[in-house]
Specification:
Blueprint: H1 8-16, E1 21-23, H2 25-38, E2 43-48, H3 57-71, E3 75-80, H4 102-116, E4 125-129, H5 131-134, H6 139-146, H7 151-154, H8 158-165, H9 172-188, E5 192-196, H10 200-212, E6 219-223, H11 249-257, H12 264-271, H13 276-288, H14 293-308, H15 311-326, E7 336-339, E8 343-345, H16 346-352, H17 359-367, E9 371-373, E10 376-377, E11 384-386, E12 391-395, E13 399-405
Parallel strand pairs: 2-3, 2-5, 3-4, 5-6, 7-13
Antiparallel strand pairs: 1-6, 8-11, 9-10, 9-12, 12-13
Helix pairs in contact: 9-10, 11-14, 11-15, 12-14, 14-15, 16-17
Length: about 400
């Protein structure tokens, strides 16, 4: 069956949406025209970093762009960097990243794929591991590859340049990472490679190395880096400023309402499938100063919950949020936790129930005023709580548990 592709202008409009940079746009138009004439899909490459198996909205930005290419009829290639994961991508790093084992990268890669198919059309993905070709390269092959790129050009990379000038160490294996990623493009004969703006250097090396191997250089398309819910730092689980695509509906909804007003439009553009006409209306509201941030955030929250769960779950999450935070009620369902004995120090309760990952985090939450028991804020980390008859512990704005006596 011959794939029916939309016309060139329609494809370009979809592909440009939210993109930070397309290098080069005229090359992309040429490739699409050739695709239309030959009735043959383009090969769209995305490499996934197996060091981060838990996906959040920051990861979804480039995955959504890959899904758009799928919807246009093109072929998606998801490359799990199980081999390059043992090197560790130095992008944005001021020090050498610890290497992973091959087993760890494989396990993380599978988790990545399972979560990514919440966004991608799972039956239209070619998933490959780059150990299939990189693991077969001999030392002579690596030397030959190294001869196709200069150290001077490698040190033009922003993070390498900063580390070099600061006297920070740069390991030789890190210099090989962009070349290894470029060989991925050669191996799959990539027409277009996607990545965040922090991947621009690596993607451009791919163009150069493909040319060295006699291939038509790939187009590189970069997407903006999504700021986290704090509105300052890049979205990251380690900074606790993330919205996970596997989060429960109530978590997605509540976290979305906590973002700064300045992020509303970017989140709508980059993390949802809202039609261009509706986005234009929102943009116009902000430009004219008539936007209602509260209502727009609620709309955004519903959009995100519906994307990763369902419209019904979005409605339920909004009703639950209003019940807890607008009407000040408790959630309909509160998970139960059990702790040994009938009383304990609040710090111990938080760690035993998983409400805090460590005693240090528990103390920090208490000191910040984020912990309450039966509606009473706890200010003393050494406070002893009697839970013989059960108490409701609340951490932050959205985490609840009913603590009961018994073995944990």
């Amino acid at each position: 069956m011959i794939e029916q592709f939309p016309p060139l202008n329609e494809q370009m409009d979809v592909i440009r949406r939210g993109a930070a940079e397309i290098i080069r746009e005229e090359d992309l138009a040429r490739k699409i025209e050739s695709s239309l004439q030959a009735h043959k899909p383009l090969r769209i490459k995305l490499g996934c970093d197996p060091s981060r198996p838990d996906l959040h909205l920051g990861h979804s930005v480039v995955l959504r762009k890959l899904r758009q290419f799928q919807d246009l009829g093109h072929h998606a290639i998801l490359i799990v960097g199980d081999f390059t994961g043992m090197i560790g991508d130095p992008s944005g790093r001021n020090k050498t990243r610890p290497a992973l084992t091959l087993d760890a990268t494989r396990k993380n890669g599978q988790s990545y794929f399972e979560q990514a198919t919440k966004i991608l059309a799972g039956k239209k993905i070619e998933m490959v591991y780059n150990s299939e070709w990189l693991g077969k390269m001999s030392f002579a092959d690596v030397i030959s590859l190294g001869g196709k790129y200069t150290v001077a050009r490698m040190l033009e990379r922003d993070d390498f340049e900063k580390r070099y000038k600061a006297g920070e160490p740069i390991s030789m294996h890190e210099l090989l990472y962009p070349l290894a990623q470029a060989m991925d493009s050669v191996a799959v004969r990539s027409d277009v490679e996607l990545g965040g703006t922090d991947q621009k250097f690596n993607l451009l090396v791919g163009r150069d190395i493909q040319r060295e191997f006699g291939q038509d250089p790939q187009v590189t398309l970069t997407m903006p880096i999504l700021a986290g819910t704090d509105g300052v730092e890049k979205m990251s689980k380690s900074l606790d400023n993330y919205i996970g695509i596997s989060d429960e509906p109530q978590q997605i909804y509540g976290k979305t309402l906590s973002i700064p007003d300045t992020l509303i439009y970017d989140y709508m553009l980059l993390a949802t499938t809202m039609p261009a006409t509706e986005l234009a209306e929102v943009r116009q509201q902000f430009d004219k100063g008539t936007a209602n941030p509260r209502d727009l955030k609620r709309r955004l929250a519903r959009e995100l919950v519906a994307l990763y769960h369902s419209p019904a779950a979005a409605t339920a999450a909004e009703e639950e949020f209003d019940r807890i935070f607008v009407k000040k009620d408790l959630p309909d369902e509160i998970p139960e936790s059990r702790c040994a004995g009938t009383s304990a120090v609040i710090v111990q309760i938080l760690t035993d129930t998983g409400m805090a990952s460590s005693k240090g985090e528990a103390r920090r939450l208490i000191e910040q005023g984020g912990v309450s028991v039966d509606g009473q804020r706890i200010a003393d980390p050494a406070a002893v709580i009697d839970f013989s008859k059960g108490v409701i512990v609340k951490v932050g704005k959205r985490k609840f548990t009913r603590v009961l006596p018994g073995e944990p």
